[in-house]
Amino acid sequence: MDERTLETLELGALIDLAARHVQTPSGRKRLERLRPSADAAEIAAALDLTGECVEFLAASGRFGLAGVEDLDPVMQRLHIEGTALEPRQILALERLLAAGKGLRESIRAAASPGHLPILGRMAAGIPDTRPLLEEIHGKILPSGEIDDGASPGLRAVRREIAERRHRIQRTLESILRASPQAVQEDIITFRNGRFVIPVRTDSRTRVPGVMHGLSSSGQTTFVEPMSVIDQNNDLVRLRDEEGIEIARILRALTDLLRHNADSLRVLLELVTELDVAQARALFAEEFQCVAPRISGDGTCELADARHPVLEHSLRRAGGAPVPISLELDGEHNVLVISGPNAGGKTVALKTAGLLALMTQMGFHVPARAARLPVFGQVFADIGDHQSIAANLSTFTAHMRNIAEAAGRLAPPALVLLDEVGTGTDPDEGAALAIAIVDHFRRSGAVTIASTHYPRLKMWAEQTPGVRNASVEFDERTLRPTYRLILGTAGASSGIEIARRMRLPEEIAAAAAALIEPDHARAREYLRRLKEALDEQESLGKALVEERAAVALKYSSLERDFARKEQERASEFTAALERVVADFQKESEGALRAIRDRTEAARARRAVEGEAARLRRRAGRLGPAAAEAGSAEGGAPSAEGGGEIGPGDRVRVLALDREGVVEGIQGETFVVAIGALRYRSERGDLLRLGPGSPPERAAYRADPPEEAPAPARELKVIGLTADEALDRVDRFLDQAVVAGLETVRIIHGHGKGILRRAIAEYLSSHPQVERFALAPPEGGGGGATVVELCR
Question: For residue 626, what pLDDT is reported?
Fold first, then answer.
């Protein structure tokens, strides 16, 4: 694509608009050199990258590239072995490293599998230069000075310099106080790298030392007193040592950066590419652009397209452009636009051409929708190319451009011709216009031409593959509307426009009378056709509005239906909750009754079973045994066999187990059941008799059973909250019966549902003293340690 066409289509102005959004000098250079590509894959990748940047900007904001400087001179110097970078150059590279680190982190945070894949791959390609950044960070201050902490040697020599300066200043201050008559001013100054004091010239001999110059008036002599000469010498030496250490630090940092030069180049390239992509994305946001689709069948479709340079200019003036729409497909590759002067024909050509170039540069385009092919060539013959220096008239300049385009044409190509064939005899011009447009049509190029020639309009109407279009002219106001209407040719309306330009009416009327009848009839035909199209468009708009109203009504009905369904669902839910509540209440009452009956039946079975065992025992042992049994307290009664005291044997009805009372705490009995200790109320105990002495242990009714070791932890991982709480409830009852003081409940980490449900349950349990998450070595947040009431 030749630069003349790019200039004609105002590509430079477009790039200037986009360049306002770049953040780095390298990005600006890259954007200014950006030109349309003819590689479909490359164009698609650039458009996708722009789209991902638009999405990233909406979600995460801009890339942090501010502060990155022009690094081309720095990289060139870094390439030269043995050279050391200046502090500010190293600082510029440090900013690049920091920008790369920020890019890597921000894109990785926003990207995910299947989301922002191009940006994700670019972030993965950013070299990990964090060790390098950590090595050089902070060693150079923003002012370009070397920080004291850049090396231990620099810190030491600067500390010594500060001490020596302070010592020199104290010495000089004492001299100033000792010789007030000889001193011109009570200040300490600096000359030739050494500390001096201002002495009156006429009192020069009163302060022995080395003279370092006179003031401009000659009345002051700057003297370095003899007592500070050695100290000043030491200060000069220390400054030299400081310079040597700084040079060593700069060489070391330069060598480190030179060793990572390849990573720096890769990083700079990625930063530049992302800066340009972000500029395209910000441009898309500014002008409400859409991503154009690439057509493979030659379709060229623009819906409500706007020329961005014109739009920017009109915005600054408080206006807005009139969008245009056009469509060409594989069967129609030529569009002939006609209509009045200043009606927008040239803007339509430039808009189509510039949006095609933007697409092939990876830009989104300002339109409601766009579908464009990839053009290998774009030719534009627009405007007046008259040149006195080149001895070219307007007509010859146009013909030269068209001849070059025809000679170099190689489809797929886009050809834009403004006022084709003008500048010569109208008949010859019309014939040339038809022949030129037809040549490009037969060559397969997508061609858009503007004209005032009636013959070219008629040819477009009658030729396959060619479409007419016109820019609208409002005959009531005698002004163009700038709307592009497809499917009909437009009248030039030259006389009406002349009247609007205040041409004397007698001249306009005389011109109208001179119009040929055929031309007048054609003009009238176009006017009636325009009225028919306007009526058709009005009917179409009415149909669209009617459809919108029907859709709105249908949507309202859907909302009403959804609201009523929601109300019915709410009523059903409320009724269901009432039924469930009633059922739960009745179930709880039934369960309490069943529990009471069960406890009574269990007690009766225990008494009856014990009585039967005693009767069998008495039958085996005879009267003596019966007497012995009587001496021990007799057979237990259903009421519990009298008072219960320490040492008595009892049956715990709730557990259906025997044990021995170890003690009484208030109204609570502590019962030993094997190795377990159980606390119980009096009503849950059945007295069997006093504890048997050791020698009579053989005559017990039943030998004690070996109790299993109590469980100290419970696992509920994988259970629902209800299932887990049921098991926790039983587990705590068993732990209390076993006399355990501490237990552990393992619920796992997961989403924390079990942990929260168990914590809520434990907070109201009467037997729980306190609870907390287990320590790290005991399961951490995956387990809860419970302390039971003693």
Answer: 37
pLDDT in tens, 169-211: 999 888 888 888 888 788 888 888 899 989 888 888 888 888 8
By the 10 Å C-beta count (0-12 exposed, 13-18 middle, 19+ buried), 658 is classed as buried
Question: Please, which residues have CB within 8 angstroms of residue 597's CB and are 6 or more apart in sequence?
Answer: none
DSSP-based helix, strand, coil % in the chain, nearest 5: 55, 15, 30
CA-based R_g, the chain, Å: 50
Say how far apart CA 777 and CA 779 lie, in whole Å: 6
Select from 754, 786, 748 the least CA-distant residue to 767.
786
- 302 φ/ψ angles, rounded to the nearest 5 degrees: -130, 130
For residue 494, the one-letter residue type is G
288 pLDDT more than 70: yes
- Angle formed by the axes of helices 87-110 and 117-125, nearest 10°: 140
Q: Provide CB contacts within 8 A for 608, sequence distance 6+.
A: none
Look at 218 and 287; give whichever has higher pLDDT.
Answer: 287
Query: Dmax of the chain from CA atoms?
Result: 157
AA letter at 463: T
Give the C-alpha distances (Å, rounded to integers) separating 193 from 59, 163, 196, 213, 229. 57, 17, 10, 13, 12
**Cβ neighbours around 242 below 10 Å, total:** 17
CB 676 within 8 A of CB 737: yes
Q: Count each helix (H run) and each strand (E run) in the chain, helices first.
A: 21, 23
DSSP structure string for 368-425: SEEEEPPPSEEEEE-S---BTTTTB-HHHHHHHHHHHHHHH--SSEEEEESSTT-SS-
Residue 680's closest CA among 693, 667, 697, 695?
Answer: 667
> Pairing relation of β-strands 413-417 and 377-381?
parallel
- CB 254 within 8 Å of CB 84: yes
Q: What pLDDT, on a 0 to 100 scale, did the predictor assign at position 616?
A: 45
Q: In degrees to the nearest 10, what's the CA dihedral of 214, 215, 221, 222? A: -90
Q: What percent of the chain has pLDDT over 90?
A: 40
Q: What is the pLDDT of residues 3-42, one digit of tens each?
A: 889 999 999 999 999 999 999 999 999 999 999 999 999 9
Q: Using an 8 Å Cβ cutoff, are 692 and 700 in contact?
A: yes
The C-alpha atoms of residue 282 and residue 62 are separated, in whole angstroms, by 9
Tell me, what's the pLDDT at 112?
Answer: 82
The amino acid at 155 = R
Average pLDDT over the chain, rounded to an integer: 83
For residues 283 and 18, what is the distance between their CA atoms, to the nearest angstrom? 6
Q: Which of 5, 6, 7 is nearest to 401 (CA)?
A: 5
**Is a pLDDT exceeding 80 seen at residue 531?**
no
Q: CA 670, 671, 677 angle in degrees (round to 5)?
A: 85
Dihedral-angle region of residue 714 (phi above 0 means left; psi in -120 to 50 means alpha; beta otherwise): beta
Residue 514 tokens read as: 């001179």
DSSP 714-763: EE-TT--HHHHHHHHHHHHHHHHHTT-SEEEEE--STTSHHHHHHHHHHT
Assess whether pLDDT exceeds 80 at residue 78.
yes
Q: Is the pLDDT of residue 237 over 60?
A: yes
Tokens 């008495």 sit on residue: 618
The residues near 321 (Cβ < 8 Å, ≥ 6 apart) are 306, 307, 310, 311, 314, 482
The tokens describing 57, both together, are 């900007």
Residue 703: asked if its preceding bond is cis (omega within 30°), the reply is no
